[in-house]
Amino acid sequence: MNPINKPKPRPAASCAPCRNRKVKCDRLSPCEACVARGIPHECKYAITDEDREAIAQAEVIAQLRGKSQRLRSDLAAAEAERQELRRRDRDYHHSRSEDAAMEMLYSALRLGSQDLVERLVGRIREGEALADVIREVQTEGMVHRPKVGR
């Protein structure tokens, strides 16, 4: 039984030559480091192939979890960006609608009859909402609606 303060020793996953040289081992049999040094016959592992496979799978699982977390983070950032673009698009179209409405009101004031101009100016001076004033222009039919894409 291990004392409470001492962790259970971890099995060595690297081959003996890589462990002794303190270099990275890819844990293949023989590993690339041993093949590169010309000693593939010395590439031996202290643990069984099954244990090495389990360790390798654990590493793959950890890598996949990290990749999954990065993808979730990227997805959240993309969703936030998409919502920001939708908000900007709504603001843009709202602004274009306001521009078209103001253009329509200007045309009515410039080209409308004296009676229409006096009514519109009076309503504007009273502080009435421009949308309501523009509705009267539309119902009067005195002015054609300007095209938005000019």
UniProtKB/TrEMBL annotation:
Under Gene Ontology molecular function, one entry of this record is:
DNA binding
Tell me the Gene Ontology biological-process terms attached to this UniProt entry: positive regulation of metabolic process
Q: Which Gene3D superfamilies match?
A: Zn(2)-C6 fungal-type DNA-binding domain (4.10.240.10)
Primary location: nucleus
Q: Does the keyword Transferase apply?
A: no
Q: Which InterPro entries match?
A: Sec_Metabolite_Reg, Zn2-C6_fun-type_DNA-bd_sf, Zn2Cys6_DnaBD
Q: Where in the cell is it found?
A: Nucleus
Domain Zn(2)-C6 fungal-type: from-to ranges: 14-45
GO terms for cellular component = nucleus
- What's the superkingdom here? Eukaryota
What is the annotated signal peptide range for this record? Answer: none
The UniProt keyword set, sorted, is:
Coiled coil, DNA-binding, Nucleus, Transcription, Transcription regulation
Q: Which residues form a coiled coil?
A: 61-88
The protein in question is named Zn(2)-C6 fungal-type domain-containing protein
